[in-house]
Write a structure and sequence with these properties.
Layout (H helix, E strand, L loop, with lengths): L1 H23 L8 H28 L10 E8 L5 E7 L2 E8 L2 E9 L13 H20 L1
Antiparallel strand pairs: 1-2, 2-3, 3-4
């Protein structure tokens, strides 16, 4: 950060020194090479400061929302090349979503005792089987209604 401040101060000083010498010159050029270099270096400096600020914001985590920690994908099941079923945990609810390239549809909401009890650790085959069994139960219950 200290290097950036030194660079800013030096660029302003060189700009003022150039302006003082150009007033004394008798040449009548409309656009000097030094002007283009100064504009270009100023543009690069502004872009560097901008990207530095964006990088710092990403590193500090200011872009994450509060609700992102309450939402997570529990499981997914591929139904074809482009269609998927996804089970998402939202607080104390679980949503079963049908996902296709042009659409996301809420198929079912699981609450209370219907929610799957899945470990937050790595998924295993038994957890996938639990998801498939629970999905079959929900589908059979919807057929009865």
């Amino acid at each position: 950060m200290r290097h950036l401040i030194v660079l800013l101060v030096l660029s302003f000083q060189s700009g003022f020194a150039f302006a003082a010498t150009s007033l004394n010159s008798t040449t009548n050029q409309t656009l000097a090479t030094a002007d283009i270099m100064r504009w270009g270096s100023s543009l690069i400096l502004v872009l560097a400061v901008f990207f530095l600020c964006v990088w710092l914001l990403r590193k500090t985590g200011s872009f994450t929302s509060v609700t992102a920690s309450q939402m997570r994908v529990i499981s997914g099941l591929s139904l074809g090349t482009k269609e998927r079923l996804v089970l998402i945990q939202l607080g104390d609810k679980q949503l079963l979503l049908g996902v296709s390239p042009g659409r996301i549809e809420n198929l079912h909401t699981l609450e209370g005792d219907d929610c799957l009890q899945v470990n937050a650790t790595q998924p295993t085959l038994t957890e996938d089987n639990l998801f498939a069994k629970k999905l079959m139960q929900v589908m059979q219950r919807n057929k009865r209604d």
